[in-house]
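Open question from group meeting: does this chain pack into something compact, or does most of it stay loose? Before anyone orders reagents, we agreed to write out a predicted structure and look at it together. Recording both the input and the output here so the notebook holds the full record.
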Amino acid sequence: MSKNIKRFSIGGIDLPDNKELNTNLKIEELPLPDIVYLPVKQHIGKPGEILVEKGDYVKRGQLIIKANPGVSASLHASLSGEIIDIKDISDSRGGKSKAIIIQRDKKAAFNRVSFNLKSKKNKTAEEIKEIIKNSGIIGMGGAGFPTHIKLSPPKEKPIDTVIINGSESEPYVAVDDRTLQEKTAKVYRGLELIKKAVGAENGFIACEDNKKNAIKSLKAEAKNWPELDFEIVDSLYPHGAEKKLIEACLNREIPEGGLPMEVGVVVNNAQTAVAVAEAVDEDQPVVDRVVSVSGRGIRNPKNL
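Structure tokens returned:
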């Protein structure tokens, strides 16, 4: 693929990106909280089935919510400790949501975890999708759509191209930028696995032109993935929106009210790609993610 900068045709806003505050800051581990509140519904679709009760002791990585049939997602404990309550709490939408509340066991080791899936073997497309479902992966770019559903389009809508969205056009946010810089190989590996899961012929990573170090990392790593590639898109907002990204990179227009699968495309976030690679190759469920804390009113911006 050429490395000409891709752009969508009409509209867009040239926003001050303010990414200089944190684009060069490595991802740090946030100190562990004493208590975590895990909403039962952290995704688009139906809440899953709660598998635990108040008073239970859970280990980090243990399945505590099982996905229901249809659009739903599983959830794993992010800390080892005691479940001290299961109750409704205020959520980000201004309403109430049921949450599992875990008090951390300060004596428990905080290690990478495994949920007993054989790893690093040649998996079939169906095995990859089943691992993704079991590991609780949802879209980590903001929408929160269960990834195993996105990777299971109807047979009459074949997928020919997978795009990993690392464009991240929102001001201040550097989550995908740092992911592309620090976990480059895992992003490519996640793309390879997603591409196999949907049977696509083509796959590439999209990165905005204002992420110079991320582009250098993608270019350096590309030699190890001859069947994959990357594209550079303009930093005009909203290139991070998947419909605009598809138009810019592939010159395909999604019908009004349609989804990327209507034009043979699946789009996944860069962090989602890493989660897929870690689930398939390292037996890791989703128990954390990267967030940016930034702004002119923040004394020490960080990526955590």
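Observations to bring back to the group:
The first strand starts at residue 35 and ends at 39.
The chain has a mean pLDDT of 91.
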